[in-house]
């Protein structure tokens, strides 16, 4: 996959979509001027070339421009591909980066250093990438981050910008986890890897200037599912639960007949056939779809930490994300949530172009900072 690189604006951030072709260079220089250009340029010049599609009459123009650019690559639909070939497809971030280049929108700079570690897990090891702000503090809160991709596609490079932005703007260390992917590693291996990485952070935080008493979990889509499951398993194992959870349009249910699945069955970049393909690849049998680790809305959610949930209107996963918020509240969990109209799955991370993404990214940062007492 190509490396994910996104842009940030002074009023917001560019986090998570998918992959791009180049790696972001670390720099300590201020990006305020470039961010201001990003904000002004995106609002004035990024426009779609066609009328709104039938599947999304309410789509915002900037969001539509990204979807149009994505379609222009002519890739085969993911459900028609093997996992290996699907990992080579263009992604929404490719579209964002191409649009940025076409409109002379500068790339971001992040005041962050990175290093890699291999973490032993049952049956093998996973790689983690540690992002540390260049602010010379003696200890930092930690965010354990899980990327998206339906448990099948994507990697640390694909979501590199997400980790960079969270580390830079939250001023916390981010540990991004390369959990093993399916179909090479079936359910529940990704879930076990996610939890093992969290335990490793608790035990080793001091070795990379992390504060083991302030550790949050965060993720998007499949990664949002892993973040919540990690908190549940920590509770059940009587290990320190995370300080907070950030779940961006998480995979949270097994019902593919919800209102948002019906409304957004053919939405882009995520549609119902793609979700069916992800499930088929990850699970050993259809019966596992009711497992509470997949069907989180039926899980025991009591005793979890404060949770932030972000959903998108044009997304098959919208209904289950909202239902998860309701279930968490019913279980006595403090929940803060926002739904964003006119945008699709993967919008979170497109702040250089999509105004709603800027708002969502800043919202996520502020929620994490609040949880850390910053």
Automatic annotation (TrEMBL):
Q: What is this protein called?
A: Alpha/beta hydrolase
Matching Gene3D superfamilies: alpha/beta hydrolase
Disordered as annotated region, ranges: 30-55
SUPFAM superfamilies given in the database record: alpha/beta-Hydrolases (SSF53474)
Q: From what organism does this protein derive?
A: Mucilaginibacter calamicampi
At the top level, the lineage of the source is: Bacteria
InterPro entries annotated for this entry?
AB_hydrolase_3, AB_hydrolase_fold, GDXG_lipolytic_enzyme
Q: Which Pfam families match?
A: Abhydrolase_3
Stretch forming the signal peptide: 1-24
The record places domain Alpha/beta hydrolase fold-3 at 143-348
The UniProt keywords, alphabetically, are:
Hydrolase, Signal
What GO annotations for molecular function exist for this entry?
hydrolase activity
Keyword Zinc annotated? no
